[in-house]
Each structure stands twice: as structure tokens, then as C-alpha cells.
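[09:14] KT: can someone run the structure on this one? pasting the chain below
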Amino acid sequence: MSWERACALADIAEDEALGVVVGPQNLAIARHGDEVFAVEDICSHAAVALSEGEVDGCTVECWLHGSRFDLRTGKPTGLPATEPVATFPVEVRGGDVYVDITESLNGVTPQ
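[09:31] RB: done, C-alpha cells below
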């Protein structure tokens, strides 16, 4: 595993997402309670940033057409999206969020 700092934990508001770039990968880092998630920052349906959508619990909604994705698995939970987005391992160290982008957790190849 190759961990890279994505952002400060304090930069992510509760039930919101933050768009960041880690290496070559655009990520949406989302926070719900004590959990922090990293998903590819592009909707598999419309190719727009998921970090600009709404986070509700462990899901993020694409702002353009309303597709919803489970932040834990990347699977779509609401149409029109039918393809998952890549998810990545996250660790919180001190006050920072680290992500390993070398391999997605769900086996989805990032776009």
C-alpha cells in the first residue's frame, strides 16, 4: 500500500464531500460521523464531480441527474447510474486523511 495525504480531517464537514487530487486521481472525500470515505470524483452516468453532490449518511447524490452511490461500496443505489464508481482505502492519522490510490477496494478501474 502507498498512502498519500489527501486533506485535513477538519476540511471535511459532517455529511459533505470535498474534491481533492491525490497523485493522478480525482477523489471525493466524504465524512459521516466517525467514518471517512474516498470515491472516484466522477459520476459513472454523467461524468460530473460527485464532490459537488449531497452526502446523506453513507451515500452521495450526483447533482446533475440524481444518481446515488454507496460511499462504502461505490455501487449505485439510485438511477440513472447503473455502473459503480471506484472506492479507495482511507486512514485518518492525527488530523489528516490519507488515501491509497494504488488499488480500488471494489475492483473498479477509475475512469
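[09:33] KT: thanks! The CA atoms of residues 44 and 83 lie 6 Å apart.
[09:34] RB: yep, looked fine to me
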